[in-house]
Amino acid sequence: MSDHAMQIEPRFDVDDIEQIGAEDEAETFIPPVPRVSIQAFCETADTAKMLQVAAEDRRMARAHTNIQSSGIDGAISFYREAPSPNLIIVELIGGPDSILENLARLAEVCDSGTKVLVIGHVNDVLLYRELVRRGVSEYLVAPLSTKQVLQSIAGLYGDPQAEPLGRVLAFVGAKGGSGSSTVAHNSAWMIANNLGTDAIIADLDLPFGTAALDFNQDPMQGIAEAVYAPDRLDDVLLDRLLAKCTDNLSLFSAPGNLGRDYDLEPDAYDRVLDVVRANVPAVILDLPHMWNGWVKHILLDADEIVITAEPDLANLRNAKNIFEIVRQGRPNDRPPRLVLNRVGVPKRPEISPKDFAEALNCEPAAIIAFDPALFGTAANNGQMIQEMAANAKPLEAFAEIAKALTGRSEPSDKRRSLLAPLMARLGSRKKS
Predict the structure, then answer these.
(1) Which helix (H) or strand (E) holds 120?
(2) Do 202 and 144 have their domain in common?
């Protein structure tokens, strides 16, 4: 591997090298890593363990990762007999001269085009500059967090000039009828219309979805056409299948009929979500209350999860089960957000919000009081709560949910997203 085999532009100023890994990355968005091969060669047990945890993260699901504890000598020996992968991660012990010498040995046996991420134990600006000059893709200083490594790997395969991938926000009810769809739809409305973020609601309850009813839409086509022919889905077909609700909000509606059996594979929605999130900053998933392979797959792969529950024992049991499996399957992500809905039903014994939240070891993201007249009228009219009553109390809860999911409290100067021309086409088509 020559000096030109690995080409990289610095992803941060060299003067900031002491800040590598210093930031709190708890809320940092990390996009999924594409289908690449990654091989890691570690010198220390701590680094090997950390990389193994990273390899098991949901964002690494498409990458093929192999981790060895044979260090730089093992890497050189291995690549004398085998082609190098898309990315090599190598941990190097020693000072700057030793690191550069070992990288020169590795370069002799690696293929052109291979990216190299070096994990070192020396925090040195001059060393970093020399590594960049020699084509090293990234240099990280141990000890590292799992999120730092995930962010670095994802960053190596992202186009800095491209629009960022949209965030997938999954809403699910702890129990059937808990109001998860209502919470999802009204939260999406707030994200799109109050915060000015382009958003798409995807109704994944194919036989019984209510999103089209709630937004007073009657589209001829929707998400089923995309799910059952994922290879055909592109920006043009997405344009045809979306129904426009507002300037910033579109709907991927469910068929809402029982004309077919909706038996789906665990990865059935992967292609659909890849296309949608490439076109819009926020993708709101309205999940049905069921438990099967594809629901679990989507929950574990989403960027944010919102669980809506009523304050009773069955909801608490189910919410606790969902929290536990999500926490186990997503150790590097924040836990789900809890929304307590229909709180204060007259004469109904309830678990207090405080006790409910303590049982789940979380704080409620929002508490929505029981108001059957307001919500019932909105549902029957096909309207959102803000359309019905601009000063309604539940709007505070939906605003809090939208703020928590987007990290924003006010509209920002909106950069032109890939969805902008799509929205314009939808608008002109609706008028014609």
Answers:
(1) strand 115-120
(2) no
- 146 and 268 belong to one structural domain: no
Query: Is 162 among the domain residues?
Result: no
User: Do residues 244 and 212 lie in contact, with contact meaning Cβ atoms separated by under 8 Å?
Assistant: no
Closest to 367 (Cα-Cα) out of 353, 356, 355:
353
The whole-angstrom separation of Cα 154 and Cα 29 is: 10
Cα–Cα dist 314/176, whole Å: 10
The DSSP H or E segment spanning 60 is none
The phi, psi pair for 179, rounded to 5°, reads: 95, 20
Segment 59-111, tens digit of pLDDT: 998 899 999 999 999 999 999 888 889 999 999 999 999 999 999 999 999 88
Q: Residues 75, 189: one domain?
A: no
pLDDT in tens, 302-361: 999 999 999 999 999 999 999 999 999 998 899 999 999 999 999 999 999 999 999 999
**Per-residue DSSP letter, 235:** H
Q: Please check whether residue 43 lies inside any domain of the structure.
A: yes
Q: Which residue, of 110, 137, 156, is where some domain finishes? A: 156
Sign of CA dihedral 398, 404, 410, 411: negative
In this structure, how many other beta carbons lie within 10 angstroms of the beta carbon of residue 231?
6
- Count CB atoms within 10 A of the CB of residue 57: 22
Domain carrying residue 84: 28-156
Which pair of tokens denotes residue 59? 């964002």
Torsion-angle region of 301 (φ positive above 0: left; ψ -120 to 50: alpha; else: beta): alpha
| The total number of structural domains that make up the chain | 2
